[in-house]
Amino acid sequence: MAYRLATRFRNRGEPMDDLRQVAAMGLVKAVDRFDPVHGKAFEVYAIPTVTGELKRHFRDHTWDVHVPRRVQDLRNQVRLSQRDLSQRSGAHVPTPADVAADTGLSVEDVNLGMQAMGSYSAISLDAEPAGFDGGTSLADRLGSRDRALETVLERESVKPGLRELPERERTILYLRYFRDMSQASIGQRLGISQMHVSRLLRQSCERLRTDTLPTAA
């Protein structure tokens, strides 16, 4: 009986051996909970128990992306309605409004159920995106970490401190780090010694570092 019930759920992506094992677990639960005092035949109690165990298996263990129970139920309602409406109308593809009218759901819930259809099984990163040819995979189109974002944060953090520096120190920092000029060349341009340039650079960097780093609580 349990194996026969498991057969009803074949062709849903789960191996039959796994379905039979789940059905057997449901049968064990039915045996443990069955009370003959109520006067019902064992099969009357066992069949819904085993069937419920199989349905719970699909609900809780076969989704690649976990979604709430309510959304899973919406997905099942929408899927069945789309299938029935397609069979009735032939080539016509049911719209969300058609499904809403057929099921009594709101259009928002229908759209939510349709979105959940893509959560049951995930697409491999080696798969080719829809509409693309030439062997491009989804993995090839994934973005990577943009290290320039850290630079943006650092520059924005240091700007207030830069505004507080004297104009000469700001000029030295600009020539050294943005124009890549040597300390000797900066000294010649500003009419000061290389040692003076080095000292001003060190003082300016220490001041900016102190102003930028958070103080310990």
Largest sheet: none
What Rg is obtained from the alpha carbons, in whole angstroms?
Answer: 34 Å
Q: Overall pLDDT, averaged?
A: 83
Total DSSP helices: 10
First-residue to last-residue Cα separation: 69 Å
Share in β-strands: under 5%
What is the number of beta strands?
0
Oligomer: single chain
Topology:
Elements: H1 2-7, H2 16-33, H3 42-61, H4 69-89, H5 96-103, H6 107-116, H7 148-164, H8 167-177, H9 183-190, H10 194-212
Structure summary:
By secondary structure, the chain is mainly α. Helix content is 64%, strand content 0%.
Task: Walk me through what this model shows.
By secondary structure, the protein is mainly α. The protein is 64% helix and 0% strand. The chain is built from 10 helices and no strands. Helix 4 (69-89) crosses helix 5 (96-103), helix 8 (167-177) packs across helix 10 (194-212) and helix 9 packs across helix 10. The radius of gyration is 34 Å and the shape is elongated. The model has no long low-confidence stretch (mean pLDDT 83).
List the defining traits of the structure above:
217 residues; 64% helix
